[in-house]
């Protein structure tokens, strides 16, 4: 009898515990389900900002965008939802529901994962609004590479605003979760009906947007293809092959794609470089300014540089090789399109121009007011230069660093070995946003006094922002003048090549964008070029030139007899051949530019973007299909040139080195080179 009572009591306790465990499991699941769907509603609201960036031109485009919005709000939350589900199942299988700490851990993971998802969506929206691209390899490279964030020159106010946004999102998620836990009444009238309706709507939207994109891709319907690119991580679905089997004819000859050569090896140069027996060893002073746009080189804004350009060769229609610093500087040293950056970085392959200078035992000193690690010029352009010859100024503002670097250069020139040639490179930072400058160089008095990336309304303050930029360019001129005065005072101009240029340009909402690295507009990709070569008559060059032409010009002056096509995609600026088009790159694309139009070509077939065709002055092309057909031969040449220096087979180190050997291969080399 006693034993029966004990067993009955134990059974009742087990049943109570089991009921309590089931109740806890069901409660946790119910709360997390509510939490997920409330976050879905919040994500729908957040993504409305992307809809505002679409210029709706048809009902089909609007329906497609709405379907993508409903579908992708769910897909963006799916990783966080899966994580929460996995943790919930772990607790169930491990019997951890009875521990409050385990339930709190699951709730905390839900809050953090959802907060991170919303934060990424907000950041992506801000980046796309400002620069017209989503979080991509370029952005991650910016965040993860040493010196990347610093290169943005983000002030303390920007950091504070970002911190407040993070805190705000976390607090909002905590409030949503608290509501899910506290409010016992159902959020929806019929749980089963809600789930069926939600599932049906999601499946319908996923189906409609996929079919819409597939048909648009097949027929070349640009509005939907363009709208798809507005949404981050959009995954296209095409069924071209199936439709062709059914007898339908696809829209052809409107798209080009170029596979990035990051997985390929460099076959560079194509042939061994030959030189005259006794080449000249000109000194080289190479001055590059961040964001120096072509219109800044005027007598009013940059009087010293302007005066020097009047006795030099000034190029009036000069294009950068990139809309951002990475591809721009890469193009001016290698003479190659920007897609070659990736294999050169992988192999840490230096340009043949720098190889020649080091073989000739140049005294090389490199200075930057930014960082050699971002972009990774220490692993590409200057990969073989000892670290001790690479100098980064430590000042807080770019203009201060510029002054320090110029002083260091003048000190080096005073102490150098006068018997050996020298090469000096300086990357100025004065014209980089937020365009800081000392008060005495303010030639535009009506400038924006306080420029905060996060809080300043760019559109309303663009005139004051541009005036800051003009004042910063005036300061840049004073620091270029210091070097030019030294060269002239010490009679070095008779033996020195001087290059003055910008890495790229800068846009001030002329076409809806501010800054650079966001579009291939004239404002962003044109920059001045002033070239002083001893013995050359001063003149102005009106035809199209490019950063791609600088290596061929310098190597010819240094006695290389090979045609430029053996080691670059540029032309000798002093030669007879003139370019009819140029190519500008960013992280994701190449842009073909000629006198009539621009055609943007994705670097990868999975970029989910179409070829963009505009006029040279960045207006929508009236007949893009006709322009594309007319330029097809030139575009195919670009495609071939973009792979001509690549190989599927890796060369060994000895073979690569021998490719840059000159006829006078017995010259002394730097024993410290890696």
Would you mind describing this structure in some detail?
The protein is α/β, with parallel strands linked by helices and 674 residues long. It has 20 helices and 16 strands. The strands form four sheets. An eight-stranded mixed sheet has the order 5-4-6-2-7-10-3-11, with helices on one face. Strands 12-13-14-15 form a four-stranded antiparallel sheet, with helices on one face. The longest helix has 50 residues. It is globular, with a radius of gyration of 30 Å. It starts with a helix and ends in a 15-residue tail after the last helix. The N terminus and C terminus are likely disordered.
Uncertain spans, ≥5 residues at pLDDT below 50?
1-20, 259-263, 605-609, 652-674
Q: Beta-strand percentage?
A: 5-15%
CA-CA gap between termini: 90 Å
Supply the number of helical segments.
20
Number of strands: 16
- Percentage of residues in helical conformation: 40-55%
The neighbouring-strand order within the major sheet is 5-4-6-2-7-10-3-11
Q: Sheet with the most strands?
A: 8 strands, mixed
What's the shape?
globular
The average pLDDT is 84
Q: What structural class do you assign from the helix and strand content? A: alpha/beta
Cα radius of gyration in angstroms: 30 Å
